[in-house]
Input
Amino acid sequence: MLKVGLTGSIAVGKSFVCEVLSEQGCIVMDADRAAREVVEPGTVGLRRVVDEFGSAVLASDGSLNREKLGRIIFSDPAKRQLLNSLLHPLIIDLQDDWLKRQEAVYPAGIAVIDAALMIESGSYKRFDELVVVWCESNIQLNRLMKRDGIGRKEARQRIESQLPQEEKKGYATYLIDTSGGFEETRENTLEVLEILRRKARA
Output
């Protein structure tokens, strides 16, 4: 099985690229799924978060209030790093278990894991190929403001809390540019997928 890491900064269109790959028969695990699972009520992950950040980050039903936690970590690099150190090992374990299960069922398939902080955490090294999704920075800013209903200042803060796009691109085996909208992004994704299929067959 060909193991592909897919990453990119916030609001660059990773979810759409994953949709296209999934439609085309790739087995895809999106970043949010793993991040949600490790902090579900009753998990070690949620206990770790509450121990460090307090019960103020919980919703009334005992689940994690991601919006409250997001406000804390986006404005404080040290707290963001702390959160990552608590949860990344759990997320990586969950992803690795998932990869093993997929490989047993689809030995000749292409498995894709989408994770925003794959490069920062060093976990990209586990994959055969690394795809970096990117777009022009002004497009990224506008997409983030529109998607999350936030102002320019907060959007910039969130973007700047991550590794710059240009740096991420330097790690890529393949790049997918989403600046041109859905149809162009689909074409760019299919081009990369054709190469990945050849590698999987080989």
